[in-house]
């Protein structure tokens, strides 16, 4: 497993990286992760997240724009387990998650705003692979995101540790 240290990546690639405003907490079993961006834009409905965790996520990070809602969890233990078993590197969720104790034991990077025990309604709503913006950064599908306990950064190209 490659270890990503965002301060080192910022120092090595200052002209490439954008730093997401600090707002995320690290909840996953992997405390650092990175990969190619796959986006989901949804509001209080994790139907599209559920669909994507069933696909091959090798080398990818799912960036979920939940509009910053703190009213429902967009990820729980079952979806996190499915994502890990399908090779996803991690998820960055602009919203909440639940089942934190189990997710912390899962081999998956997970960053989110907070926790909430309430699940979402599944109405089949949401968009996949569209640019999303939060934290002062646009997350473009196909670009790259890296996260650790120091923060989250985005780059138009893949970065390697110095």
UniProtKB/TrEMBL annotation:
UniProt KW NADP keyword: no
Cofactor(s) in the UniProt record: a divalent metal cation; Mg(2+)
GO BP: regulation of RNA metabolic process
Taxonomic superkingdom: Bacteria
Binding site for Mg(2+): 99
Residues the record lists as binding substrate: 76-79, 98
EC id: 4.1.1.112, 4.1.3.17
Matches recorded under NCBIfam families: NOT-MenG, PRK09372.1, PRK12487.1
Membership in a protein family: Belongs to the class II aldolase/RraA-like family.
UniProt subunit comment: Homotrimer.
Role of this protein: Catalyzes the aldol cleavage of 4-hydroxy-4-methyl-2-oxoglutarate (HMG) into 2 molecules of pyruvate. Also contains a secondary oxaloacetate (OAA) decarboxylase activity due to the common pyruvate enolate transition state formed following C-C bond cleavage in the retro-aldol and decarboxylation reactions.
Protein name: 4-hydroxy-4-methyl-2-oxoglutarate aldolase
Organism: Oleispira antarctica RB-8
Taxon lineage: Bacteria, Pseudomonadati, Pseudomonadota, Gammaproteobacteria, Oceanospirillales
GN (gene name): rraA
